[in-house]
Specification:
heterodimer, A: about 220 residues, mainly alpha, 9 helices, about 85% helix, about 0% strand, B: about 260 residues, Four Helix Bundle (Hemerythrin (Met), subunit A), membrane (chain B), Heme exporter protein C (chain B)
Chain lengths: ~220, ~260
């Protein structure tokens, strides 16, 4: 019962994302554009780009996940369908989790797929791609969860859009630090184990707690 | 407690009763009427003694020379920056779990004071770093985590004031404060976990301090001064906030009576 409702909310969100295809692709386009600006500013030296590629990709991924957060719950609060979503019988935390999962499927997953070509464009070698993708695979859901929590909390606030980066970026710094370190194949002997473990630990912490916080925000916004 | 409260007599846990003794704004105002001047005077006395001793009478460091005197401001600021955030998170917990009305107002007033303390910690650290490390700023684990703490304070300040309904702001800010607590252990242990430029702790609870008494005593006194000053500022701001709230209520009532 709960599962089928959860899947319904998720399917609805995915269908909406599909119908508004350009909005959904905007984050991905931003990611690619942002990534291709760095070689223009830093110069096309392959050595420099190769060294900076994991950091550049991670920063671009972080900024790209921020883009759709404003509309994550905002659009539905405005047209009133958020009230209906909360009335279908799911706890608010699960509604939030469904929307966070939809955000990851429409933003995080495409980023993950496009990260490999971007890495190659920035002078990455074939062996760099596996650690980069492993880090992003754990990191992008984490960014969606943190972003979803912040988006739920600022729902209905004045200047919510400006407030959102201020809340997300400090909380996302550990993800960025460990993710970029896990993806950095240029430092020999560091291994990729510990950073990935940390990311996994953060994900395990965020998975139950962020939807709860976001759900409390949803309930407060519609009350 | 001398008089058992009714809830304790009924066999229910009395944590809430003890907590709510100070939830009454009127009781807090009666308390702060003498507490605020007392804290302020104690802070000024301690600061004069501690900073006077530290800046003029304590010995210069054999390695760092007179630059070590920045420590008497920097270290108290650093401790207060993290403790202030811990207090913010505690207020958040009290507000979420027990709906403590003063905890919300306290969180609102601790935020700006804590942000200023954190900014001063970063500024004095930068001034200390230039002669010692040769750089105003390095991307060291402890420096970075304190910078993140500063941004967390700013986010809290902005969020708690961002809603038309103050209760929503209190609730959202409480959750944010609790989520941000993850930064505190990172700050605390950054110098132990990573090999960083920032020196490890000189004062710990378990070992004898690796610092001469002639420096430790002024440091302790100036820390007490800054901590009392922090408490005095928060008490004063809280008192002002309650009075402002009351004044607004009276004005609203008057406007309602006239209309």
């Amino acid at each position: 019962m709960v599962l089928s409702l959860f899947l319904c909310v998720l399917a609805r969100d995915l269908r909406l994302a599909l119908r508004h295809g350009t909005d959904t692709l905007a984050a991905l386009l931003f990611f690619l554009l942002c990534g291709s600006l760095f070689p223009l500013a830093l110069g096309p030296s392959p050595d420099l780009l190769h060294r900076m590629a994991p950091g550049i990709i991670w920063v671009c991924a972080l900024l790209a996940t921020l883009l759709p957060l404003d509309r994550m719950f905002g659009a539905e609060l405005e047209d009133g369908s958020l009230d209906h979503l909360l009335l279908v019988g799911l706890p608010p935390a699960l509604v939030a989790l469904a929307k966070i999962l939809a955000h990851w499927l429409t933003t995080g997953l495409p980023l993950l797929i496009m990260a490999a070509p971007l890495s190659l464009m920035l002078g990455g070698k074939g062996s760099d791609i596996a650690p980069l993708l492993a880090g992003l695979a754990l990191g992008t859901p984490l960014l969606s969860l943190i972003g979803g929590m912040a988006a739920g909390l600022v729902l209905g606030a004045r200047r919510g859009g400006v407030l959102l980066p201020l809340l997300v970026l400090p909380l996302a710094t550990p993800v960025l630090i460990f993710g970029a370190a896990a993806s950095d194949a240029t430092v020999p002997g560091t291994g990729h184990g510990i950073e990935l473990d940390w990311l996994g630990a953060f994900l395990a912490l965020a998975l139950p707690s962020c939807p709860l916080a976001a759900g409390s925000g949803l309930r407060a916004a519609t009350a | 407690m001398i008089h058992p409260s009714p809830s304790a007599a009924a066999g229910r846990p009395s944590t809430g009763a003890l907590l709510h003794r100070f939830a009454n704004p009127g009781r807090f105002l009666r308390l702060s009427r003498w507490l605020f001047p007392l804290l302020s005077i104690a802070a000024i006395v301690c600061l004069a003694a501690g900073l006077g001793l530290g800046l003029f009478f304590s010995p210069a460091d054999w390695q760092q020379g007179d630059a070590v005197r920045i420590m008497y401001v920097h270290v108290p600021m650093a401790i207060l920056a993290s403790s202030g955030y811990a207090a913010l998170a505690l207020c958040g917990l009290l507000s979420l779990v027990w709906k403590h009305p003063l905890a919300d107002l306290a969180a609102m007033e601790i935020g700006p004071v804590g942000a200023v303390v954190t900014a001063l910690c970063l500024a004095t650290g930068s001034l200390w770093g230039k002669p010692m490390w040769g750089a105003w700023w390095v991307w060291d684990a402890r420096l970075t985590s304190v910078l993140v703490l500063f941004f967390l304070y700013l986010g809290h300040i902005a969020l708690i004031r961002a809603f038309d309904d103050p209760q929503r702001g209190f609730r959202a800010a409480s959750i944010l404060a609790i989520a941000g607590v993850i930064d505190l252990p990172i700050i605390k242990f950054s110098v132990a976990w990573w090999n960083t430029l920032h020196q490890p702790d000189s004062i710990t609870l378990t070992h004898a301090p690796s610092m001469a008494m002639s420096m430790l005593v002024p440091l302790a006194i100036s820390f007490a001064g800054f901590a009392l000053g922090f408490a005095a500022l928060v008490t004063g701001r809280l008192e002002a906030a309650i009075l402002e709230h009351r004044a607004q209520q009276i004005l609203t009532r008057r406007a309602g009576a006239r209309a």
